[in-house]
Prior knowledge:
Layout: H1 2-18, H2 23-39, H3 67-72, H4 78-102, H5 107-117, H6 121-124, H7 133-152, H8 156-170, H9 177-193, H10 203-217, H11 221-236, H12 240-247
Helix pairs in contact: 2-4, 2-5, 4-5, 4-7, 7-8, 9-10
Amino acid sequence: MPFVSEYRIDMRRLNSLLRNPHFSVLASVLYVLSRLYNSVGQPIGVFPDSASYLRLSFTGGAERMWPVPVVFSALQADSTRILANIAIGSAAWIFMAFTLARQSRYPRAVFTAVLLLGLSPQIIRYDLALLSESLGITFAIVLVVTSLRIAKEQTTPNLVLWIAAFVLCVMTRPTHLIIAVACALVSIAVFIQSRGKRMVFATPALILLLVWGYATVNNNRSVSNLNMYTVLMDQVLRDDSQYDWFVQ
């Protein structure tokens, strides 16, 4: 049957690709090209609060926490900021694919699955948005990967990467501070349970990070109010059913 023969040919091609010694490189290039194809030439999502990501302050002098403004404020055009979202995001997912593939009995299947997950609409739709979602997801992915690496190999490079990923992830969005809060609570619980005999070395650093995070979030209220106003105007007041649900 023609359908069966075409299916067999496609499976042979797929099997040949999976057995290619340069498979990981080819898959990585294809992944980057796919993300570029999805975004390049498309309308850029500029929102009422997008301008707030162009003002950088490490001490709370701006409306936004610093990791996203570090990237966006260093670039002159919105198109290059979108390319930065794509480049940094692609690097993070490829990093995860290599890490998980190394730890699996089926490395190429795992490598492929991770990159396919990284192409899901819930991930790549934020590439075109001048907001913190894209880099927020990216830094969270890097934190997960570095956590897996340091759990398997406790080396100095892995520790440095983990600390950098932790700080970037926690400081990207106000809601991410809950990660530092959870870690600090665990450290304090260990200290209390041991009756003061065990002090996790990271506890003071976590507390300082939370203080730093609170200082940078303190000026975010005006932007939060603007976002709430935008949601009410665009999604609630224009739809009678949404308005009825909201007032109830």
